[in-house]
Each structure stands twice: as C-alpha cells, then as structure tokens.
Amino acid sequence: MSFEYIEITDPLYVENKEQTGEENYIMVRAKQYSDVPIKIPNWVPQAHCFTTEFYYFNNIPASEVYPDDVWVLSYPKSGTTWIQEMAWLICNDLNFEAARATKISARFPFLEIGLQSAALHFSFKDVKDMPRPRFIKSHLPVSMLPKRYWEVKPKTIHIRRNPKSVAVSYFFHSQGIHYRGSMDTFLRSFVREHQFYSPYHAHVIEYHELRDCDNILHVSFEEMKRYLPSVVRKVCQFFGKSYSKPELELLYQHLSFKSMRDNPAVNFENPKGPTKGEPFIRKGEADGWKKELTPEQIHMLDEWTKERVPNPEHRKLFE
C-alpha cells in the first residue's frame, strides 16, 4: 500500500464534523516518496486531508505521464482556473472559439476529481483517454504525484496565493458544494490543517523546494492581478509561443475578471450544493480578505503562517 491512513481525532473536528458536512475526512500520508527531488534536508511528507474516497486511489503513483503533457498544479482556490485558461489558450494558438465552446473541465481535466465523490471514480480515465497533448489539473502535493512525473518532467505551472485570500475563497467554494458550518468554524479548521488538501503551507513550500525542476514555472495570483501582461509573457516564453500585440490584447480581454466571471465554460456551479452560495468565480480580488475577515480572524491566520513558516525566505511566498 502506497499510503498511510490516519483518523482525525482533533476535538474541533469530532465535535463539528456532522454539522459541517465533513464527516468522512481522513488524513493520508504518502509512504513512497524517495523519487521526489526535494532540497529540504531529511524531508518526510506530512499527512494531507482528504476524504475516505482516497481508499480507491492507490493507483495514483502508477498513473502514466507523457513528455508533451501540460500540468497546472496548485492548492485549491489559488487562481487555478485562471492560469488553466491562460495556459490552454497560449498552447492552442489562442483558439478563443474552442475555449468558449468547451468547458475547461473537458479541455483541462482534474486528475483526482474522483476523490471528492464516489460517482466520479472514473476521473483517471478522462485523463488517460484524452488526446495528446493532454492538459491536466491537480491539487496533489509533491509526495502524491505519479512516479512517472519525476522521470518525465512535463511542462508545469504552479500557482500560489496569499493564505488569507485562499481561506476566504475556499470557505465560499466549500459552502457552495457541501459545507454547512460558519466561516469562523471553517477558518479554525483550516488553521488546524483539516480542510481538503491541507496542509496549505507545506504544499506551497515543497513545490518551491524542488531540485532541478526547470519544467515548473511558478506564478502567483497576486502577480497576475497586479500586471497580467507580465505573467502572459512569462507563460508564452515558457511554452515557446509568440503572439502579436493585437492577439495578446484579445487574450488580456478574455482573461479579465469580468470575462471570466461571465464565461460559462470556466465559471461553473454545483446546483446540488446545500446552498446556492457564491459563484465559482466570485470576486477575483487580491486582498478582498480585508473586507471579509474580522481583525481576530486576520490575526489568527497571520499567527498560523508565522508558526508554520519559520523560515523568512519561505515566508515571502505567502505575502
């Protein structure tokens, strides 16, 4: 077995799990990780929060990876859909018509979406059967990527985001799918690393501490918000693509917040969620957390980052 399964006994989780809709969460730790080229001395991967659906996914390490794959990796709610749409268009000659006609989930399937629902256990098949070059999204930590990923090293973009922005966006996203608790309960669970795919800081740091992985381009949500053309130029260069100024202007327009929010191919919702909640692409702000969080919640999240990230260089990743 490639993974160790650990029951969550935290009193906060135990007390609230049925009320919040998280009763089937479990911590999962990779047991085989020697292939990961990480620079952290004596590194041992932490356990990550998933659901019990993970029991069905022991075949993750054996998944095939091809040299012409394009991967987007991230912790949830870090700007993943935004960078997926950018990467897909840049790699597909700015085919806006095709992008608008086909949902991003079909053009750029989510490798492990089956972890979220027993009805979606065939998600690996969607990726396996996709015509090459394949476009693949994943939120998996470095310790859980397929073994072949480290041999093949396909072109990959990793995107990160300020943890306070992630926390707020993740709450509203979860509320639209299954979550029935308050924001405060969610945040207290988040800093205890008991939200799906947590721990957050470890995910980001480990991707930035990989050795000899020039196949990975690192970008941030905040960088994209400040000056989108700069990120577009980096992504074009990364994939060896070049476009005219008028073509790029059309791309900037397509990737604007209003365009993304109004585009049904990327802004999907879950009609079966417990509440109507917020739209999938909600506000698209770099520092919207300042208006959404109380001073106490901001302090809690800041102290959490200080505790989890003692290295000053690593802490710059979370600014």
TrEMBL record:
Q: Where is the Sulfotransferase domain?
A: 67-308
Which SUPFAM superfamilies does its entry note? Answer: P-loop containing nucleoside triphosphate hydrolases
**Alphabetized Pfam families for the sequence:** Sulfotransfer_1
UniProt KW Transferase keyword: yes
Provide this UniProt record's keywords sorted from A to Z: Transferase
GO MF term (any one): sulfotransferase activity
What is one Gene Ontology biological process annotated in the Swiss-Prot or TrEMBL record?
sulfation
Its cellular-component GO annotations read: cytoplasm
Q: Which family does it belong to?
A: Belongs to the sulfotransferase 1 family.
Protein name, entry field: AGAP012672-PA
